[in-house]
Amino acid sequence: MLDAAADAAKATAAEADAADHARAAILAELFSRRDTSWADRPVGAVGSVSRGRRFVKADYVDSGIGCMHYAKLHTDFLAAATAAPAYLPEVMRPRLRFARPGSLILAGTSENREGVLKGVAWLGDEAIAVHDDAFIYEHGLEPRFAAYVFASPPFRRQVEHVLSDAKVVRVSREALTRLMIPVPPWDKQVEIADTMEAVVLAILTSKAEAEAAQKVRAALQDALFSNSVTVRG
Asked: How far apart are CA 149 and CA 155, in angstroms?
């Protein structure tokens, strides 16, 4: 019984991994379909880049000003966020810097090369305070598409040339503004964003199924060894 449960857990985990790998392949394919209607422009020419303002986790409160710590960009979100993961007291408002709805929040620092400049589109109803190890990108792109641009293979290849090789990986604001991004017509931006949103939903579903299968196996094991269930036949 435990072997069968373990096999089921492994199968669902493999499906989740396959979906995650498919995400990168599909994203690469979508950006390879460009035509003459697309234009390559510097990040700084498409929008404005600013850095967030400092706050620490000790500042967090149960409710107040929604905030986004740079570390949350790596762990809690894929391409978009609609709810603040933490809050700061109202008295801090004058010294904070905010991303407006539709802005892109970019990780300026990471422990690895893949994580730096990961973008999360802020789709909440109100402005959100941003940590100083993250950038705020105000732009005229479709918000979800903007996040996928910064994850696309052509952009990531450029990032490799502007990284700082230190204990943590960083990209400066000046280097970021010089990087080139593809800008297709608006309808194509929406099409790419919708396609990737469907892929992300499949990934989330697969991961949820994998986690559920692991929990079922663990619960079954506990039940068997505590004699809470009886094996017949």
From this structure: 7
Compute the 3-state secondary structure of the chain and give helix, strand, coil in percent, each to the nearest 5: 45, 20, 35
DSSP structure string for 72-128: HHHHT-SSEESS-SEEE-GGGGGG--EEPTT-EEEESEESSTTTTT-EEEE-SSS-E
* pLDDT band for position 63 (cuts 50, 70, 90): very high
Q: Is 121 exposed, middle or buried (0-12, 13-18, 19+ CB in 10 A)?
A: buried
**Dihedrals φ, ψ of 152, to 5°?**
-70, 145
Is 30 within 8 Å of 194 (Cβ atoms)? no
Residue that the structure tokens 């978009």 belong to: 80
Its pTM stands at 0.81
Burial class (CB in 10 A: 0-12, 13-18, 19+), 80: buried
Tokens 């809690």 belong to residue: 76
Bridge-partner residues for 106, per DSSP?
119, 135
pLDDT of residue 102 exceeding 90, the answer is: yes
Residue 138: pLDDT over 90:
yes
pLDDT of residue 161: 86
Closest to 182 in 3D by CA, of 160, 158, 217, 201: 158
Q: Would you tell me how many other CB atoms lie within 10 Å of the CB of residue 230?
A: 7
